[in-house]
């Protein structure tokens, strides 16, 4: 069975809740450590982003017994890679050559979207993205996730453009 299939089986099938929670918590801890290494050594972090799967995983704190979790890490970062479409997770084995070309702004946004505070609040972000960029990405995320009501409230301006309240205009006869 491939590392990816093992990852999917163990991360999505919660037959035994205790084992599942332990597995996911292990993933979160290892993911955080890997990001601390990658982000903390920016911009000279190519040693953590390029090489064989077995070498990169070891450098990022994953061992032979946690290769499925490493592929889960790749699964998580894939959408933040400039070359993510070229990464076939099912084909990843120990000898697969990896080149992780990270779009850091997209990675930060995706961490916010995943509500992974333990990742998007890492101190290393301050040396990668400016405060204004972080603020702009945060604003974009919030704007994209605001709930929009499609119903017109009684006291809202009338959509016909009259300037009157809806209840005094088009909503008067409802």
The overall pLDDT average reads 94
Give me the count of strands. 2
Main sheet record: 2 strands, antiparallel
What series of H and E elements makes up the topology?
A: HHEHHEHHH
Low-confidence stretches: none
As a percent range, the share of strand residues is: under 5%
**CA radius of gyration:** 22 Å
Class based on secondary structure composition and strand pairing:
mainly alpha
Figure out the total of helices. 7
Gross morphology is elongated
The end-to-end span amounts to 63 Å
Order of adjacent strands in the largest pleated sheet: 1-2
Helix content: 40-55%
Summarize the structure.
By secondary structure, the protein is mostly helical. The chain has 7 helices and 2 strands.
Write up this protein:
The protein is mainly α. Helix content is 46%, strand content 3%. It has a two-stranded antiparallel ribbon with strand order 1-2. Helix 1 packs across helix 4 (67-77), helix 2 (17-40) crosses helix 4 (67-77) and helix 5 packs across helix 7. It is elongated. The mean pLDDT is 94.
Main traits of this protein?
174 residues; single chain; two-stranded antiparallel sheet; mainly alpha
